[in-house]
Design a protein that fits this description.
The chain is an alpha+beta fold. The protein has 6 helices and 4 strands. The chain has one domain (9-200). It has helices at 9-20, 42-53, 65-77, 118-131, 144-149, 175-184, and strands spanning 136-139, 164-168, 189-192, 197-200. Strands 1-2-4-3 form a 4-stranded antiparallel β-sheet, with helices on one face. A hairpin with a 4-residue loop joins strand 3 (189-192) and strand 4.
Amino acid sequence: MANLDLWSNHSIQQFLAWIYGETALGDAGYDGILGVPGDNSCCRTLIRKFEEENALTVDGGLWGWECQQRACLLLTQGISLTDHFSSAEFGCGIAISEDDTPSLHSINCMHYPEVLNHTALRCLERTRQAIGSAIQITSGVRCPDYNASLSGSSSTSRHLLGRAFDCNTLGACSYEDLLEIGLQNGFTYGYVGDGFTHLQYDGSGY
């Protein structure tokens, strides 16, 4: 089994933006700089706030497993990501129709081995609004071991980066129509699989 590292600095900033809003990152935005314990940078201040709100060790480091474990738990339980989607719908192995056997997951997966890409989620939200009906996520973000356990999955799958979603509209439109609408609303690639439409975003942007 693969042993996963902590999220990258950019991914940590994406998580903080989900919790506190993208404007909370300040003018620097997604610059990949977390700051150092004790300083007053926007990112360091947000990490300190997150630690305080969740009874974690404040300024114990830049970002450790204590922070990430709590962050993954919050994402698994569900925080609002867009008008129509919650993080509880996208976790590794917990999306509809997936098997969540612990032995299938990489070490430290915790259902959120990577943070969902904001731009990809905006594409999904626009697709949802264009269809005017619910989109069910059948596979969201994946850890390497879980991804490898799925038949036909690629070792370079964009699910590993939080940039791809397998989904359907529960009969509101065909898989083919879902693909076409998704591509019209920002997704850069997709295909129709066996009982799902794969939508992914490969462009720039966090």
